[in-house]
Automatic annotation (TrEMBL):
PANTHER family tied to this protein: SUCCINATE--HYDROXYMETHYLGLUTARATE COA-TRANSFERASE (PTHR48207:SF3)
Gene: Sugct
InterPro entries: CoA-transferase_III_domain, CoA-Trfase_fam_III, CoA-Trfase_III_dom3_sf, CoA-Trfase_III_dom_1_sf
Name assigned to this protein: SUCHY transferase
GO molecular function: succinate-hydroxymethylglutarate CoA-transferase activity
Family in the record: Belongs to the CoA-transferase III family.
Entry's Gene Ontology cellular component terms: mitochondrion
Pfam families, alphabetized: CoA_transf_3 (PF02515)
Organism: Baryphthengus martii (Rufous motmot)
Amino acid sequence: LAAVSDVFVENYVPGKLAEMGLGYEDIKKIAPHVVYCSITGYGQTGPMVQRGGYDSIAAAVSGLMHITGHEDGEPVRPGVAMTDLATGLYTYGAIMAGLLQRYKTGKGLHIDCNLLSSQVACLTHVAANYLNCKIEAKRWGTAHGSIVPYQAFKTKDGYIVVGAGNDQHFVTVCKILNLPEVSKDSRYTTNTLRVQNRKELINTLSTRFSEKTTNEWLQLFEGSGVPYGPINNMQQVFSDPQV
């Protein structure tokens, strides 16, 4: 079967298939062209390689749970298996690159994909902040650590997420909320100042958002140029014409 296949994918604990005579070196002798991909919890080397890998465990070890949840609450597991999904996407890209290499060289290779490495790679700017500046990460709920306002706001009957990605967006948000004086307040004229005075500003905006329904706010934000959207339940997701 290996001799007539392009890709070999396995997710056994490292070393287990080699014991059965089906490790990469074994398959390579039969089919040197095969792109052999191993998907594990922790990779092929290191002190944790013999541990089984599950999404939630990798999400915990990788720090994803540490940065997920309410600011003053406990760590939270994401609503779907994001670590599994990310690993699958990285695996897909690696296999496609492996097939391209095989096309150019005629040689296969062994790809090592694992849950922990994939999720650590997905930490993006959070990891960069720590590695470059030693800034420890924290949980922000729906908010953003360095952009304000960029979060969910409770309405009369649900929630709306609004992201003021620049100063002009913020002025527009204040205009829609009929709070023009807030955009002129010296505490909020730049994003840096808004981050510094986050609590006071969010309290003011939250009070105004609570005065109308989600649909009323959606109509007011339509065409404004400000990124926004409701927090939908499943019924709303699958009845949305855009979906």
